[in-house]
Amino acid sequence: MGVRKYKPVTPGSRWRIGNAYTEITTDVPEKSLLEPKSQTGGRNVQGRRSMRYMGGGHKQKYRIIDFKRDKKNIKATVASIEYDPNRSAFIALLNYADGEKRYIIAPQGLQVGAVIISGDDVAPEVGNALQLKFMPLGTNVHNIELQPGQGGKLVRSAGTSAQLSNKEDKYGVLKMPSGELRKILINCYATVGVVSNSDHGQEQAGKAGVNRWKGIRPRVRGVAMNPVDHPMGGGEGRASGGHPRSRKGKYAKGLKTRKKKGTDKLIIQRKGGKKLAK
């Protein structure tokens, strides 16, 4: 864990703050857990561009991650901590006692050689996966399921964790990284610990070319376009463009865009601190 500030030997490195990758133990991924990853360049199946500002980027392969942790009561040894280009967190390669290898999202503090396990009667230690009902209150968790057996969906990005604050009947109450209080079925699995690479938010690209490596092309500002192309375009000179809005005319600031969902009844308190009416 840590960041590296580069010496200003070039204009691009003057402002660059990169990851020191002190936790990474190898740069060679496990071949059996790799899949090809195709680049679309923003094109649909007809070959027509449906998303702008996408294209190029470094060629990548997808690492198959075990989000379900469904190898119950079989001990696994951490073989390596690796970088994954598809996510902000680091990943850990596990060697199970029966010979199988799997990747998981690496929690902070997990070391090579550590032994972890998933199951119903395992200790709530870093890297172990168990149901919420077997965890003590105050436990920090990540890779949380929404439905039993579905696989982890919540809290998977670098440096994040949710805290188990209460248990009510068939639900556990989790305080999410956003501050939201949410009920999760108590039979859902979660992994103990905080997600690794907590310094990810301190990184600075330093130059525009870093985004090109990621497959992101330059984005044209709306106010620089003509009125036919964008609601904020046109005008004499450098016009402000009016209220910030999208290309389709939807307001960009202040307008609530979240649709009502069937799981809204499980949200006790929103991230802004507003409690929902029951």
Question: What are its keywords?
Answer:
mainly beta; single chain; seven-stranded antiparallel β-sheet; 278 residues
Describe the protein.
The chain has 278 residues and is mainly beta. It has one domain: Nucleic acid-binding proteins (OB fold (Dihydrolipoamide Acetyltransferase, E2P)). The chain contains 2 helices and 17 strands. The strands form 5 sheets. Strands 9-16-10-13-14-15-17 form a 7-stranded antiparallel sheet, with no helix packed on it. Strands 7-6-5-8 form a 4-stranded antiparallel sheet, with no helix packed on it. A two-stranded antiparallel ribbon has the order 1-2. It is globular, with a radius of gyration of 22 Å.
Give a nutshell description of this structure.
It is built from two helices and 17 strands. The chain has 278 residues and is mostly beta strands. A hairpin with a 2-residue loop joins strand 13 (162-168) and strand 14.
Helix content: under 10%
Mean pLDDT: 94
CATH class: Mainly Beta
- Overall 3D shape: globular
Say which CATH homologous superfamily is assigned. Nucleic acid-binding proteins
Number of separate strands: 17
CATH arch. level architecture: Beta Barrel
Major sheet size, sense and barrel closure: 7 strands, antiparallel
**What is the distance, rounded to the nearest whole angstrom, between the alpha carbons of the first and last residues?**
43 Å
Total domains: 1
Which regions contain 5 or more consecutive residues with pLDDT less than 50? none
Give the strand line-up of the largest sheet: 9-16-10-13-14-15-17
Radius of gyration: 22 Å
Helix and strand pattern = EHEEEEEEEEEEEEEEEHE
How much of the sequence lies in strands comes to 15-25%
| Helical stretch tally | 2
Backbone structural class: mainly beta
